[in-house]
Amino acid sequence: MPIVHIDLIAGRSQEQLKNLVKDVTDAVSKNTGAPAEHVHVILSEMQKNRYSVGGVLKSDEAAK
């Protein structure tokens, strides 16, 4: 039972997330041989003010 964790900054549409989990499931199933119904995908979305790169919050970066 493969378990895939994906951390994302919030802001993608429901359709984008649906396509993402479908594509990830297909790739994991293809490359591991695990049936798609046994592939678990966990999406964790973070707000831009809870994630930084190089000491700069993504929320502050967007304001530039």
Summarize, please.
Its EC number is 5.3.2.-. The protein has 64 residues and is of the alpha+beta class.
Structure report:
This protein has 64 residues and is of the alpha+beta class. 38% of the residues lie in helices and 28% in strands. It is built from two helices and four strands, in the order βαβββα. It has helices spanning 14-32, 58-62, and strands at residues 3-9, 40-46, 52-53, 56-57. It has a two-stranded parallel sheet. A two-stranded antiparallel ribbon has the order 3-4. The longest helix has 19 residues, at 14-32. It starts with a strand and ends with a helix. Belongs to the 4-oxalocrotonate tautomerase family. It is an enzyme of class 5 (isomerase). GO terms for molecular function: isomerase activity. This is Tautomerase. InterPro entries: 4-OT (IPR018191), 4-OT-like_dom (IPR004370), Tautomerase/MIF_sf (IPR014347).
Quick tags:
64 residues; alpha+beta; two-stranded parallel sheet; two-stranded antiparallel sheet; 2 helices; Tautomerase/MIF_sf; isomerase activity; isomerase
Main β-sheet: number of strands, strand sense, barrel status? 2 strands, parallel
- What is the percent of helical residues? 25-40%
Strand content: 25-35%
Count of extended strands:
4
- From the N-terminal CA to the C-terminal CA, the straight-line distance is 43 Å
Mean pLDDT: 95
Q: What gross morphology would you assign?
A: elongated
The secondary-structure class comes to alpha+beta
**Elements, N to C (H/E):** EHEEEH
Flag low-confidence runs: none
Query: Tally the helices: what do you get?
Result: 2
Major sheet strand order: 1-2
Taking all Cα atoms into account, the compactness measure Rg is 15 Å
Protein name: Tautomerase
EC number: 5.3.2.-
GO molecular function: isomerase activity
Keywords: Isomerase
